Amino acid sequence: MTGITHLVFPDGSAPSTVGAVTAATTPPELDRTDPEGAIAAAAKRCSNWGRWGADDVLGTLNFLDETKRVEGARLVRRGVSFSLAQSFDANGPQRGWRRRTNPVHTMLDTGLDAERGQGFPHGLGGADDVVFMPLQASTQWDGLGHIFDHGTAYNGRRAGDVVTSEGDGVTGIETVAALITGRGVLLDVGRAIGTDGELPDGFAITPAHLEATVAAQGGSARVGRGDLLLVRTGRLARARREGWGDYAGGDSPGLSFTTADWLHGTEVAGVATDTWGFEVRPNEFDVAFQPLHQVAIPHTGLFIGEMWDLDALAADCAADGVWDFLLTAAPLPVTGAVGAPVNPIAVK
Predict the structure, then answer these.
(1) Which bin fits 36, alpha (ψ -120 to 50), beta or left (φ > 0)?
(2) Do 278 and 254 form a contact (C-beta atoms < 8 A)?
(3) CB–CB of 340/146 below 8 Å?
């Protein structure tokens, strides 16, 4: 694709550590009144622009290589598997926020049609169906074309060059359809830090909380390069108990903006949570909307999963004390999509 620019921050400067592998740093204390400054500073510290070349479209999935997939496969011990997807149906959490609706499933042919004859020879009959849905209505991945920073997409490209009315022609979700399989690790922060396995709305999970959870869970919970990190808050469990309410679009526990450096430094390939928006809501600045997204996707190139169902897996991990597993989480390869549904499978 022509006309794409690279390696320029919104303020006109270039990242100072392109291609460098750096350890996580402790960010300065947040100034609630200055989201612009905090986002710009974190964008520079956590940038992966140019790290894998000017034409890279994979972002942090570059960390998930063949060795990591073999490592993940070796974690299968008992053969027990868990679907980490919520249901895709009309009873889902969506209430029209950002014009998102729950899936609408309609039959094109039914058993009644078959009984009455469909014109096929020798008594053959069949059923067919169709579904209409926003691609981020339920369990899903955010692709790299989902979020921009001041009109700039991942790897320094102009947002308008990447996503047009025809979709994402550069980093469409189909580019990673075969890649998201490897070592998964669950950090059950709700169980380790929360009350009765759940965190309250507005609880910001900091790097200290993540590290405390790793320490509490033990060696199988270590998090490192190429891992697919799952963070359970317990928010979905509460929605199941109390009703959807504002589960999709409202207040929620989630990752603190201060985890941007931790996520960048640990070099995880992707991260997913059981919440609608991955990061804490309300956000940690006086006036802000999803500032961690604004750093993690267009600058770090991080793949973010949302609305994953981690409850059954978490219960099993707590029972056997093993927090890592083979995880396969291929998105539906909708060409040009900036996000896509997924049925993640964890196998232990």
Answers:
(1) alpha
(2) yes
(3) no
Nearest to 263 by CA among 187, 179, 151, 180: 187
Q: In the chain, where are the structural domains located?
A: 35-91+136-347, 103-132
At 267, list the tokens. 């070099």
Q: Which positions ≥6 away from 346 have C-beta within 8 Å?
A: 81, 82, 84, 184, 313, 325, 326, 327
Residue at token pair 């979709």: 167
Which band of pLDDT confidence, cut at 50, 70 and 90, is reported for residue 28?
A: low
Write the CA distances from 187 to 165, 280, 281, 310, integer angstroms.
Answer: 38, 16, 19, 10
Q: Are strands 324-328 and 181-188 parallel, antiparallel or unpaired?
A: antiparallel
| CA 210/CA 203 separation, integer angstroms | 13
Pick 35-91+136-347's CATH classification: 3.30.70.100, 3.30.365.10, 3.40.109.10, 3.50.30.50: 3.50.30.50
Average pLDDT, whole number, for the chain? 91
134-170 tens-digit pLDDT? 999 999 999 999 999 999 999 999 999 999 999 999 9
> What is the Cα–Cα distance from 141 to 190, expressed in whole angstroms?
22
Nearest CA-CA partner of 238 in 256, 250, 228: 250
What three-state secondary structure class fits 120?
coil
| CB under 8 A, 24+ apart: contacts of 283-286 | 283/35, 283/257, 284/30, 284/32, 284/204, 284/256, 284/257, 285/30, 285/32, 285/33, 285/34, 285/35, 285/38, 285/257, 286/32, 286/33, 286/35
Phi, psi values for residue 265, rounded to 5°: -70, -35
